[in-house]
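Worked example (supplementary).
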Amino acid sequence: MSDNPLHTPRALNGRAPDVFRKGAWVPMREYSQNEAVDFVVIGTGAGGGPLIARLAEMGYSVIGFDAGAYFRPLEDFASDETSQSQLYWTDERLIDGANPIKMGSNNSGKAVGGSTVHFAMVSLRFRPEWFQSRTKLGYAVDWPLDWREMWRYYDKAERDLAIAGPISYPWGPKRPRYPYRAHEIGGAAEWLARGAEAMGYQWSETPLATVSAPRGDSPSCVYRGFCRVGCSTNAKQSQLVTYIPRALKAGAEIRDLAMVGRIETNAQGLATGVHYHREGQWHFQRAKQVIVAGYAIETPRLLLNSATDRFPDGLANRSGYLGRNLMVQSNQAVYGRMKEMVRWNKGPPSLTITEHWNYEDKKDFFGGYCWMAQGPLPLEWSAAVSSSRGLWGEALRQKMMDYNHQVGLKMVGEMLPSMENRVTLAEEKDQYGLPITRITYGWQDNDKTMIQHALGEMQRSLELVGAQDIWRQENDTNHLAGTARMGFSAESSVVDADCRSWDVPNLWICDGSIFPTTGGVNPSLTITAIALRTADRIQTLHRQGKITL
Amino acid sequence: MSDTLPNPLDERYPGYDVLDKRLTPSWNDATRRVIDARLAVPREARFLNALEWRTLSALCDRVMPQPTYRPPVPLAAYVDQKLLSDTRPGFRDAALPPQRETWKNGLAVFEAEAMARHDQSFHALTPSEQEALMIEAGAGRLGHAGWSAEQMQLFFNGHVLTDILGAYYAHPTAWSEIGFGGPASPRGYVRMQNDRRDPWEAIEATPETVEKTRKENRNVR
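After joint prediction of all chains, the assembly is encoded as:
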């Protein structure tokens, strides 16, 4: 194979990779740089992917840019943690603060399809009250979105991604049956279920974006368990194999290995296009509307790097909120060893879940959390054992021998927004000559209280099923949110409910960075649901003459 | 805590070799390409100088001591290769310079401290002398001119341990040692429940069944 997708773009010359057939191509429409396309979308992940597809299907001209490679999973993906770091955003980022965030693996993707190419496929809905956490639950801020409308977009997203889940989900308002049946639960997942039952809590098969029966060109999941380093069979319903192929079919263009470094604005304060780096040089693409979907680090970075005399603090930053209120989710875990052979690497890693503490409000902290079964691969596992237990040498080698007997429970918990947790620009430059980011993060008291509560609960669950040699992983975090908050006013947020920036009317932001709060579940399905809504809103606003195309 | 270990053997999965599956449906071409390349790593310094290489090799022996009954994983070669290609993790503590410089500085501190305390190179110290310095580094108590104890702690916990363990547990030898199924595409797995084993998964030995298991594991593929 002469083509290396990390070095040479693949979506060129009127064709893009057919991700379902080795060596095959699908036709792709191409737009001229001098032609102002209706929409440029920067980022092709959980937010960008659905937008590119839906806007193209509505008949708009759309180009989707991604800094990462256009992979062919059937040919490019090895069953190997190390080499599959090719899916991660590994460009340098500085981290500091009281609790620096480890970047680059579980929270950052660099590929067409974004981090959905390596996400764990967990596809959950927000608890309705989280859209009004200030009014209903007394903390943080409300969203300008109505949960009932979101519920309809969750329905759509779940159908588009053929989510495999239970017949009835134990928590929250009624929802339709999941499109695909739930996956068989594995050994590690069963221990979660037994622990939850011993505690008197409900549990469920986790709704997952990997198909439990064939769907189009996607075969049924074969339970290889390498989900978090990329699915080599296309069972996983990532953006790369769902919305992106739809987008191409509908006439969108995808530009891979295309790093957007700056959004150009004119004297009227409107966006006119984007400067992007591809094939060794800078280019300029004209556009009537620009949508940024680069996730919570690259989105503020791009907007900060696009500062002008008129917008000296970065685009869409009149409020001063851009880059602020960065949120991760607490991702602490408790592990133990069973007498049985569990072989927890088999199957998707998070096959069962309990959302008990997302829906129970009798507790001494704000926000919620869930926990899920675990199945880390050896590299990730050795890093967790070593860093959490302070082990190396022979002691570590011996502990690693228990790999097939391990079980674990890992939380996804809501950290609260803080203005001090933020993304700024550093002096240092990257390979494109662009200032890199500095990511500053510290846990607040509420975050710490929740983490201790969750660790105690997860430990009790493992004790109740007879796990031995139990220990806690206290330092892990996952997922990103915030930095371009959605809100009710231009003074205290970056975008409105339609993801349109308050300051630049033809500039939009649609990814996890618009989250005012992050909830106690994995964010990807909510990002996708908001993107589907935003596409509909754009069409409506255009028909009403409120968008110029 | 080890009283309930099902099996205190060093060879928990005797006879099991994940490489036996190389030509089965558990390995696709992409996997064969990357693992073949991994096994072919040049066992020599290409980025570090000779003294740094010896310091690194000593650290590798302490972080992951390897049994003598099978060929060792060439850990120093993988760390050197990572530095040569400058493959980065995607973040850097703001207190540290880029990883190549961090590694060179950190190795120099181990060497300088060894000379200052024992008048010998780090690689010439006894294992317990080496470990004492490493424990101090990990605890944030080992600084040296121009390189703070905090930087040394970040270097040891965030680079030394991460990169050496990352090299070890990325190697088929380690996968076989812990009974990990290894690469699994496109075949995947079928038997999902506790105590169920697919025929291409390793069998765990008990002290009584070592030789029987060794024979059985030779057919696992």
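Two points are worth noting when inspecting this output. Chain B touches chain A through 65 residues (CB under 8 Å). Residues 40 and 90 of chain B are 26 Å apart (CA to CA).
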